[in-house]
Amino acid sequence: MSETTDRTNANAPTRSRNQKGTTLQGRRGPDVPPGMRGDVTVADRVVAKIAGMAAREIPEIHKLGGGMARAFGAVRERVPGGGSDITQGVSVEVGERQAAVDLDLVVEYGASIADTARDVRANVINAVERMTGLEVVEVNIAVNDVHLPDEGEESEQGGGRRVA
Questions:
Q1: Which of 48, 66, 82, 88 is buried most deeply by CB count within 10 Å?
Q2: Chain-centre distance of CA 15, in angstroms?
Q3: pTM higher than 0.70 for the full model?
Q4: If you ran DSSP here, which 8-state letter would residue 143 be given?
Q5: Among residues 151, 156, 70, 142, which one has the least CA distance to residue 105?
Q6: How far apart are CA 5 and CA 27, in angstroms?
Q7: How far is 22 from 28, CA to CA, in rounded Å?
Q8: Which residue has the higher pLDDT, 59 or 79?
Q9: Could you say which DSSP state residue 112 is in?
């Protein structure tokens, strides 16, 4: 009797029903190395945090978030215990094996927006794919504002980076 095994189904990532995120199923059996056995679940919020941190690593990025998100973020930072939200300005859609990222950015004045967007996109894709194993199919970037050097301290709160 011939035995057939559908290895694509055993190795394919699947989405968990009760939890937002992605469950990457490992292979099973004694012939599989220990590091490959079991499941890994990556929540949407994890992908959003990784993307937010990766975008902020680019020096020309002042802040993330659109006008209203930044306004709410400023209020949240002033409330004791409110802290800052690293996912502000980041939206993700995570599927079984792929992720899509949308970013709202504020760029420093004088920076090339096209070059900055390219750098952000590359950094986000590399970080998310390296850390999660998901394929990033797209990173959509919306530049909502330009930070001017003479804008006061009030608009600089929130840990934005400055170009030297």
A1: 48
A2: 18
A3: no
A4: E
A5: 142
A6: 12
A7: 18
A8: 59
A9: -
